[in-house]
Prior knowledge:
Shape: globular
Order of helices and strands: HHHHHHHH
Strand content: under 5%
Helix content: over 70%
Number of domains: 2
Number of helices: 8
Largest sheet: none
Number of strands: 0
Amino acid sequence: MHEQLWFTEILNRYFAGPVNSLLNAVHRPAEYSNAPIPNFFAMEILVVGILLVFFVLVRSRLSVENPGGLQHAMEGVYGFIDNQSHEIIGHDYKRFTPYLITVGLFILVGNLIGLIPGFESPTANKLVPLGVAVCTFIYYHFHGIRKHKHHYIKQFVGPVLALSPLMFLIEVVSHLARVLSLTVRLYANMFAGEMVTLAFFSLIPIGVPIIFLLLHLGVSLVQTFIFVVLATVYLAGAVGEEH
Length: 243
């Protein structure tokens, strides 16, 4: 049995029964009935809780006349992603900014929480990046269909009717590969970063691991940025006007 984090132990102590009932109802019983909630899922819940508290704090301190540091920070984040969306997506870009900010903050906090002793990054488990990638996949296709209706299929079949079956197959594989690309890129980098940091902490607990903590911090920021940029590019392709 994998060692549980303290937060995971708390969740399993109080919610193991309902979780087991839910898993049994869908015919997917937990491997360990006394601990059906794994660490990565517990960390996801914690990240969502942190973000909810953070959003409430930001909302409660909004002020036009006397904005605080927290408001300035969030305005900076909003402005950065909003400008990026404007440059990449163009017309009607603002409707996508809330999703991109939410995904970016979830990934960033999920990446960085592993730097705190007693926690681990949920994004270092492949299921979490896969879930975010699938949500992004569904999101940009939904908006592509919303905007173009049945004409959205034209993006998959190409201009040459004779080649449309082949083009459709290629495009479907290409879009599915985007899910794999988003998942593997984020998962592999965060998993490798956590393993390297833990290895050096166990070998040389003083001094040297600080370098790898800073490296982990840099990787966390870069991977968040890449995920958000790629999601923006995919949205631009789905909702962009045909020229």
